[in-house]
Design goal:
11 helices, alpha/beta, seven-stranded parallel sheet, globular, 37% helix, two-stranded antiparallel sheet, 11 strands
Length: 342
């Protein structure tokens, strides 16, 4: 396979996808977590250049969270927004307490915390309004109606335009949507993480809610460029069961299946994996906007190339089957994601 993508990325002016509640975003988003030291050290100057390149290339849907880098990710994105706020659909999240690298100490969904968290995020981001505000995780001690009710107040106050939920169950989504329209559900979804297809995806389709898959490339594993055995001590992936030595070795079968399809298409594994996810959204009847993250501008162009990749039925069948070979859970604690509560 050639080193350069057969389907290069490029600007996609005017090309948008409608999620729920009237929110229009670029066909691919950008996951900002990779621009903080969760997968190793990050050069802030390079990180900002990568963000600018994403917007230049047509990726206007930028996703962050208050806990990424203890708030430093929002502060980094604020530098982009100073110059290009009108070009960006901005998403951030609240509820988790702690950081990905140091560990999470709590989940808070009480109304008082919602109000405090949004003001902190607005200040760090240097903006008056957040386009999409997510509940990052469900606080099971608090009725979801209370959490979403407080979020709805933020819409009324003009601090937030649209509401989202991350890693909720189908019933939690239905309960939340009864309080206020939900624009998007964000959960891990990829060739090797398909549990959301059983309950959450059908509920989203039924309610007219868009889906925003995070880690659509299996935290890099599906690209075939990640050596699980050589991850740094502070690399967040060391805590994920399917990156453990035995599981990672077995999961190479999934990588090989993705690579095989990519070779047939003269594409890259990343493009094949993203194309599968986009096709899966069409098969299941709901808008899907993956948010792959990267530190490198060249990867943004590569990822955008997935929009031009067409998977034939035989390709889809091969990639569907690859998911059956996955070993290990996608989360160190399944109760912190929808999979553990469905």
């Amino acid at each position: 396979m050639a080193n350069t993508p057969a389907h290069p990325g490029g600007t996609v002016p005017g090309n948008t996808v409608q999620l729920g509640d009237g929110l229009a975003v670029s066909p691919l988003g950008f996951g900002g977590m990779a621009l903080t030291p969760v997968y190793g050290e990050v050069d802030p100057a390079e990180a900002l250049r990568t963000l600018h390149h994403a917007v230049d290339a047509g990726v206007s849907f930028i996703d962050t969270a208050d806990i990424y880098g203890g708030g430093s990710n929002e502060e980094l994105i604020s530098q982009l927004l100073k110059q290009r706020r009108g070009e960006v659909q901005l998403a951030t999240k609240f509820a988790l307490v702690g950081t990905p690298t140091d560990g999470y100490t709590d989940i808070r969904g009480d109304a008082a915390y919602v109000r405090e968290a949004v003001d902190r995020s607005l200040q760090r981001l240097g903006t008056d309004v957040i386009d999409l505000y997510y509940m990052h995780r469900r606080d099971i001690r608090v009725p979801i109606e209370e959490t979403v009710g407080a979020m709805a107040e933020l819409v009324q106050q003009g601090k937030v335009k649209h509401l989202g939920l991350s890693e909720v169950t189908a019933q939690e989504l239905r309960d939340a949507a009864a309080v206020h329209p939900i624009a998007a559900v964000q959960s891990e979804w990829s060739i090797w993480s398909r549990d959301v297809e059983r309950n959450v995806v059908p509920a989203a389709e039924d309610l007219g809610v868009g889906f925003v898959p995070y880690s659509p490339l299996g935290r890099g594993f599906l690209t075939g460029t990640v050596d699980a055995a050589s991850l740094g001590e502070k690399d967040f992936r060391r805590n994920i069961p399917r990156f453990a030595p035995d599981a990672a070795g077995a999961n190479q079968a999934v990588v090989e299946a993705v690579r095989s399809v990519a070779d047939q298409l003269q594409a890259t594994p990343a493009q094949a994996a993203l194309a599968w996810l986009l096709a899966q959204g069409k098969r299941l009847g709901l808008p899907v906007v993956p948010i792959p993250g990267t530190r490198k501008a060249s990867r943004i162009d590569e990822n955008l190339g997935a929009l031009a990749v067409h998977l034939a039925p035989a390709h889809l069948e091969a990639l569907d089957a690859a998911s059956d070979a996955v070993v290990g859970s996608r989360s160190a604690d399944p109760n912190w994601v929808s999979q553990g509560r469905e």
